[in-house]
Specification:
single chain, alpha+beta, two-stranded antiparallel ribbon, 2 helices, flat
């Protein structure tokens, strides 16, 4: 038995979306695939120091969110669950 053939297809796709409000309503500017708990483990390569003096790598979503926020528009992150259309 091949485990790939018996594996159940995912019914839902999960993602986090960065949106900007540019006077015409909220528009998607970036989308990141996540797991079913909306966790994404992509790292940005940028390190910051926490309050205890330890360095940690900033997630790609948070790094990009900060970059979009510097533009001066309202920015938010939403969680999106969409039906998988099948491939």
């Amino acid at each position: 038995m091949n485990t790939i053939e018996n594996k159940k297809a995912k019914k839902w796709d999960y993602s986090k979306v960065i949106q900007q409000n540019c006077c015409y309503g909220w528009e998607d500017v970036s989308t990141y695939e996540t797991n079913s708990q909306f966790l994404n483990f992509q790292k940005s390569g940028v390190f910051k120091e926490n309050s205890k003096g330890k360095n940690f790598e900033v997630s790609l979503i948070n790094h990009d969110f900060a970059e979009y926020a510097r533009m001066g528009y309202a920015v938010r992150i939403i969680k999106r669950k969409t039906l998988n259309k099948g491939e």
